[in-house]
Amino acid sequence: MNPYLAHVPPAVRALSARVSDAVLLRTFDAVEAARTARTGDAVEVPGFGLVPAANISTVWGWLVDVVKSRHTAEWTAISDAHYADITARAASLQGCAVDAVEWDDVPDDVWDGKPSALELARRVLESHAVEGVRA
After folding, report:
1. 21-77 residue pLDDT tens
2. CA atoms within 13 A on the CB side of 134
3. Dist. CA 127–CA 122, nearest whole Å
4. Does residue 16 contact residue 109 with C-beta atoms inside 8 Å?
5. Which residues does 116 contact at the CB level (< 8 Å), separation at least 6?
6. DSSP category for residue 110
7. String of b and e for 24-50 (b: at least 16 CB within 10 Å)?
């Protein structure tokens, strides 16, 4: 089993196995809309059914893990490139080698302009959903 899915419930693994990236993107959008709306109401999420507001962030995390599991090489390459860039910036600020960065002392703005896990997952899904439509 892909390590990204090891902690994901069987129902989520089943969803991942049966839907395309385009469908998963719609599910991802529904979860993100509910997560940012923060109405406190349960939300109907495609593939999951009615999800209590308190569980939306958990479902969102599982979906990011599904994206990572489906497109591991791409996810790893993007993440590694971003980490290398951020580490180089931090090392430059601290005047040290990249392997000597003190992460607790790194200002938040070092991450400015870098996408979040959510943004990365969305980009990966969008690119593969478009490829699936072209195929």
Report:
1. 888 888 888 888 887 887 888 888 877 788 888 888 888 888 888 888 888 888 889
2. 6
3. 9
4. no
5. none
6. G
7. bbbbbebbbebeeeeeeeebebebbee
